[in-house]
Amino acid sequence: MIATIWVLAVTAAVLVVLPKYRKTSLPRSKLLWLYIVPITALIFLPLHYALSLDIKVYIPMILITVFWQDYVTFGILQPMLGERLSPNQAAIMTSIVFTFGHVLFSLNNILDPQLLLVAIAGFVFAFSTKRTDNIYIANIIHMIVYLV
Asked: What angle do CA 38, 123, 71 make, to 5 degrees?
């Protein structure tokens, strides 16, 4: 839980310190209504939740860390890379960073078969961000993965 609180503090600081990226990655959008899908999944989570971690810890941990990952990776890193590279190159580099971040912090094993799924997710998230000019689709899909 301490790590989740730390991530929340870092995310809040980044949102304040780098307003340029907040405005470009979190704009007003017609896509916001799609958050109804993870909200619905969240409502039904207690019906199928089976992890040993208390659900009262799991829910904020997932919501905060998933938003943080998506905002920092696709909302800040990708646009920064896009200032120096083509949009496609920036999306590819961002998906690689996303994949290696998961190898370093969660999978711990480069031969884990889940790595392929993470790489595909990183590619989908990066190119959906490129296509929509915001992180909403990536964030929604990412949340659904943990809530279903």
From this structure: 55
The CA distance from 111 to 25, in Å, is: 33
Q: Specify the pLDDT at position 34.
A: 94
Alpha-carbon span 37 to 90, nearest angstrom: 28
What does residue 29 show for φ and ψ, rounded to 5 degrees? -155, 150
Global pTM value: 0.82
Which residues does 73 contact at the CB level (< 8 Å), separation at least 6? Answer: 94, 97, 98, 101, 125
> Can you give the residue ranges of every domain in the chain?
2-147
Residue 138 CB contacts under 8 Å (≥ 6 apart), including other chains: 70, 74, 124, 125, 126, 128, 129
Between the CA of residue 125 and those of 5, 22, 47, 112, what are the distances in Å?
25, 17, 28, 20
Residue that is written with structure tokens 């990776």 in the block:
73
The per-residue pLDDT for 148 is 85
Ranges under pLDDT 50 in the chain: none
